[in-house]
């Protein structure tokens, strides 16, 4: 390494933490370097713990915050210059100065009175560095302007994330894949039973609690909310949104897509193709309701139906009237749809992640069943979709603001028609049919959305 001459203060970079510019005081009296960190929080397995923390890189300016994380390599007692002892977590990262880089250990401390964001101790000052104690900033000047630039987002490193999967089924394929793939990427993934969450709702410090304890700050939440708990599950997601946690799918989009009447109204408002649909509350309107849709056969569908349950094919007008009367007798909400005969018991599931159709499969119903759901014995195989089908799937997912969605399409003579937009699509069928790592693509989106970057606090 070339020899470097340091003054008593220098501009440095810690790219591994997403800190491209920070001033450091050179402190030869200290052995280990230290970083002024806020909200220090340990997470991850006991065997390989990690620490997450916030850094305010600009002294005296709390508007810019960078969230960092790193593996913990030690925890040691450190005595400061004023004689106070403190147990601190120790991490390792790379120090960059004037085009040269070398590894250093850093202790994390939250001392609001520190004038310097960072102290560089003796261990970080290798043999190729000489110190001029009466001068400062002998190395090239950096600038805090980088924190106002979009470039910091694109150059930020990948970091270990703390992720919550909201699911009541910890053992099912999709939840297991979310845990396995996330942990293989170095993240900590915790499965949280949505129904065991409860909330402290207040303006200053909204919280989510679980099993008697406040849940920690998560970098991201991946909802897998079952239809039976949609209202409460969305309330929990809304609470995470209030806290500021990134949620792959938002509460509003989940609620709208789950309510089939609301969902069809959203699709219609965006001029997205769908089967002709009608809805009425009064039993006196049965004949008029059927007439709006067309002639039999007709589909009668419960608003809360999932996985093909509560979906009935009425092949004659008389059969349709009988089914509608039965549903009305149960005081159930339902809608009536045109039956797309040319689809012949097949539909196409398009998996949309982050505004892209990442996979598509054709689902065929079991013999004698017009429903193509895999849960009902249907089969699936990979399919090549048309440009129009791709665009329809993207528009449908966008209409509900969903980061991940399963969009089910029918191929009709007048073009693709959206049957449903599923906010919690399963991964098993489509991963096996297409042989694609769908969950990996989901984590690509999560990692991109929660990169270390400046977060500008809104003024009160």
UniProtKB/TrEMBL annotation:
Database matches in PROSITE patterns: ATP_GRASP
Name the record gives this protein: Probable alpha-L-glutamate ligase
UniProt superkingdom: Bacteria
PANTHER family the record matches: RIBOSOMAL PROTEIN BS6--L-GLUTAMATE LIGASE, RIBOSOMAL PROTEIN S6 MODIFICATION PROTEIN
Chain ranges of the ATP-grasp domain: 264-447
Alphabetical UniProt keywords: ATP-binding, Ligase, Magnesium, Manganese, Metal-binding, Nucleotide-binding, Protein biosynthesis
InterPro entries: Asp_endopeptidase, ATP-grasp, ATP-grasp_RimK-type, ATP_grasp_subdomain_1, Peptidase_aspartic_dom_sf, Rimk_N, Rp_bS6_RimK/Lys_biosynth_LsyX
Gene3D superfamilies (alphabetical): 3.40.50.20, Acid Proteases, ATP-grasp fold, A domain, ATP-grasp fold, B domain
Protein's organism: Sulfitobacter marinus
Family of this protein: In the C-terminal section; belongs to the RimK family.
Pfam family, one: Zn_protease
Keyword DNA-binding: no
Lineage: Bacteria, Pseudomonadati, Pseudomonadota, Alphaproteobacteria, Rhodobacterales
GO biological process, any: SOS response
Cofactor entry: Mg(2+); Mn(2+)
GO molecular function: ATP binding; metal ion binding; ribosomal S6-glutamic acid ligase activity
GO cellular component annotations of the record: cytoplasm
């Amino acid at each position: 390494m070339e020899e470097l001459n340091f003054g008593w203060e220098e501009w440095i970079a810690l790219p591994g933490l997403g800190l491209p510019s920070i001033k450091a005081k050179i402190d030869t009296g200290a052995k280990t370097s230290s970083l002024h960190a806020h909200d220090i929080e340990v997470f991850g397995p006991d065997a390989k713990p990690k620490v997450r923390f916030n850094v305010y890189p600009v002294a005296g300016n709390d508007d810019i915050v960078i969230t960092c994380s790193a593996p913990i390599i030690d925890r040691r007692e450190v005595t400061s210059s004023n004689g106070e002892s403190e147990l601190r977590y120790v991490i390792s990262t790379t120090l960059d100065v004037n085009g040269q880089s070398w590894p250093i250990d850093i202790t994390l401390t939250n001392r609001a009175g520190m004038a310097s964001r960072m102290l560089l101790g003796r261990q970080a000052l290798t043999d190729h560095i000489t110190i001029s104690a009466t001068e400062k900033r002998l190395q090239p000047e950096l600038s805090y302007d980088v924190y106002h630039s979009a470039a910091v987002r694109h150059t930020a490193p990948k970091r270990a994330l703390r992720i919550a999967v909201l699911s009541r089924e910890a053992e099912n394929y999709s939840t297991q894949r979310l845990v396995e793939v996330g942990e293989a990427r170095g993240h900590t993934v915790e499965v949280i039973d949505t129904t065991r969450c409860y909330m402290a709702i207040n303006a200053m410090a909204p919280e989510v609690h679980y099993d008697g304890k406040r849940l920690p700050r998560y970098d991201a939440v991946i909802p897998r909310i079952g239809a039976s708990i949609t209202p409460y599950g969305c309330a929990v997601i809304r609470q995470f949104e209030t806290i500021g946690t990134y949620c792959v799918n938002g509460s509003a989009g989940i609620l709208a897509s789950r309510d089939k009447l609301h969902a069809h109204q959203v699709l219609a408002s965006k001029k997205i193709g769908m089967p002709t649909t009608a809805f009425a509350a009064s039993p006196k309107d049965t004949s008029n309701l059927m007439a709006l849709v067309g002639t039999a056969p007709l589909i009668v569908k419960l608003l809360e139906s999932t996985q093909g349950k509560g979906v009935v094919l009425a092949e004659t007008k008389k059969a349709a009237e009988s089914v509608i009367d039965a549903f009305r007798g149960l005081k159930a909400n339902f809608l009536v749809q045109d039956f797309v005969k040319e689809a012949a018991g097949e539909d196409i599931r398009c998996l949309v992640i982050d505004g892209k159709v990442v996979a598509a499969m054709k689902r065929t119903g079991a013999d004698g069943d017009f429903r193509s759901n895999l849960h009902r014995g249907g089969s699936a195989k990979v399919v090549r979709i048309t440009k129009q089908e791709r665009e329809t799937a993207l528009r449908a997912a966008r209409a509900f603001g969903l980061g991940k969605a399963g969009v089910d399409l029918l191929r009709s003579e007048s073009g693709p028609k959206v049957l449903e937009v599923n906010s919690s699509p399963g991964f098993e069928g489509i991963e096996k049919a297409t042989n694609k790592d769908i969950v990996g693509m989901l984590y690509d989106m999560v990692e991109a959305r929660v990169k270390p970057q400046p977060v500008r606090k809104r003024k009160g």
